[in-house]
Amino acid sequence: MRSVRMKDRVAFGPKGPLGVLVDPMTWRAAPYLLVSGGFGLVWFVVVTLATALAVPLVVVWVGLPLTMAAVLMWRGGAMVERRLLRAAFGVRIADPYRGRPEGGLLAHLTWLLGDKATWQDLGYLLMLLPLGLVESALSVVLWTATAMLLFVPLARVLYVLGGVDSGLVVDNWPGALLAGAFGVLLLVLTAYLVRGMAWLHGTLGTVLLGGSEEERLRASRARGIDAAESERRRIERDLHDGAQQRLLSVAVDLGRAQAKFDTDPEEARTLIAQAHAGTKAAIAELRNLARGIHPAILTDRGLDAALSGLAARAPVHVDVSVELAERPPAAVESIAYFTVAEALTNLAKHSGASEASVTVFRDDRGVVVDVWDNGIGGAAVTPDGGLSGLADRAATIDGVLVLHSPVGGPTIVRAELPCEW
């Protein structure tokens, strides 16, 4: 049965030695950890030199643009690091900066220096030197030792067959095979240590590069307000371009029919028939618009029935499991519904999946919505995309949207929606 909770899957990390070795995230993290010490050294030199040059000159006017350039440089470095952390560790960190102010040089400098995220960026770049040196040193030692041990059996084969002495030749087969076995064990240990260092580095990066919790909540609410305003404009545009125009046409037809009742009854009847058809079309458009705002079945029968209706319209078989003892608040139901609707729409358009599942359950924090499919994966949250809009919807109630979609699949979309009954 596919209707299982995400926590029962391997979505948040491999389990077992084989899992950690075959997981692409291990091999994406390993190169970054090998060179992170170099990144740390480069950023430390750049930041310290730029700051040492700019700060003493603040007493004269040329120091202001130099200071702004230095701050923008380390902000740029932090932005680069956020992208590197996403590529290496799968950690998505949004830029937490305040909006740019109006005004001249002094206003912009005050904006830069007064933003807490600016100093957190600096703290991360300075921290990257000691942290990166430790990561790189451990990585070099472990990967080198692993490679040497794994090469011993091959070196023995090359020596026996061709007399090639690589310097790692063991003079007996039991010793060579034992070295290879230790190499395999060290490979697994190294992979686990890589994942551990990646987790630690990603956590520190999230704390320092992601801004404070209060700032993240403020940004989430701001995105939610923007999403609501965008939805309001869409509804207004749909009303203006659709139902309003049809109703205006109905009013015109009825006015013309009224004028022709005495002189041309047949034409009046034709106009009334047109007005009747236009009225029905306007009602249909208003019904579709209302369904897009909040489906009637969701209000009347709840999530189970509404999600079953979505699953029935999907192009593949979708298992639906709603494990809620009672109905959550209307806002949570609405966000859960549209999360599933968008996920199934993306499934139909892009995934190439043959089956999917939708699971809704309650945990100690609220309602969790999981949508799983066995498609090709590779989905991403892009600005102004459907998944980004869902994240903004969830942010209005301090919820989060998590996407796990490695290339090759499967794809899992999880919405965690805090609420109280």
UniProtKB/TrEMBL annotation:
**Which InterPro entries would you find in this protein's record?**
HATPase_C_sf, Put_sensor_dom, Sensor_HK_TwoCompSys, Sig_transdc_His_kin_sub3_dim/P
Q: What positions does the domain Signal transduction histidine kinase subgroup 3 dimerisation and phosphoacceptor occupy?
A: 231-296
Keyword Transmembrane helix appears in the UniProt entry: yes
- Membrane spanning residue stretches: 32-52, 58-76, 122-155, 175-194
Gene3D superfamilies from the xrefs? 1.20.5.1930, Histidine kinase-like ATPase, C-terminal domain
The broad enzyme category this protein falls into is: transferase
Q: Which UniProt keywords apply?
A: ATP-binding, Kinase, Membrane, Nucleotide-binding, Phosphoprotein, Transferase, Transmembrane, Transmembrane helix, Two-component regulatory system
Q: Which CDD domains match?
A: HATPase_UhpB-NarQ-NarX-like
Report the catalytic activity: ATP + protein L-histidine = ADP + protein N-phospho-L-histidine
Q: Does the keyword Glycoprotein apply?
A: no
Q: Return the EC number.
A: 2.7.13.3
GO terms, molecular function: kinase activity
- Would you tell me the protein name for this molecule? histidine kinase
Species whose genome carries this gene: Nonomuraea spiralis
